[in-house]
Amino acid sequence: PEKGVESLEEALVEAEKSPRSLVWIETDQLAPPWRINPKIFREYAEDSGGLTEDSDPMENLIPWPNPSSKIGTPLNDLERHRLRVSYASVVSAWDNEFASALELLRERGWDQQALYMVAGANGLDLGEQGAYLGVALNEPSVHIPFFFREPSIS
User: Fold this and answer.
1) 72 has a pLDDT exceeding 60
2) What is the maximal distance between C-alpha atoms in the chain?
3) Under 8 Å between Cβ of 145 and 118
4) Contact by Cβ (8 Å): 89, 36
5) What interhelical angle do 38-47 and 77-107 show, nearest 10?
6) FRET pair for 42, CA 20 to 30 Å: which of 10, 22, 50, 124?
7) Which pTM does this prediction carry?
8) Spatial CB neighbours of 22, under 8 Å, sequence gap ≥ 6
């Protein structure tokens, strides 16, 4: 179908009307500003351990939904940890939503006939260079996520 829809369920209903369909799902969920689930953030923060033996990982560790305000500014250990826990929380929430989308495809029997492709526009620097650089031309930013699954070769 050549119309935009708001949900995967709606897109699949439209796609079933045609013998050949392309369902394109696009999200900005992994780009800041992030919508961080506090429960997932707390789980990652608790599981991630301390920054040093002398520090409390939960002290001042709150979600960081918009690290773009710090682009180019050097990060201390707590800020780098906070950035990474925030991003891990966002990726985890996205992963749960992606699993739900795959389940919808399985329910319709599309899992054995559909080609899945997932790609990112760019990687993201999470303080590996000592500062949050966002999307800058450096090694972390050019590591672009991509995977595909084609049922006949899996």
Assistant:
1) yes
2) 62
3) yes
4) yes
5) 120
6) 124
7) 0.79
8) 15
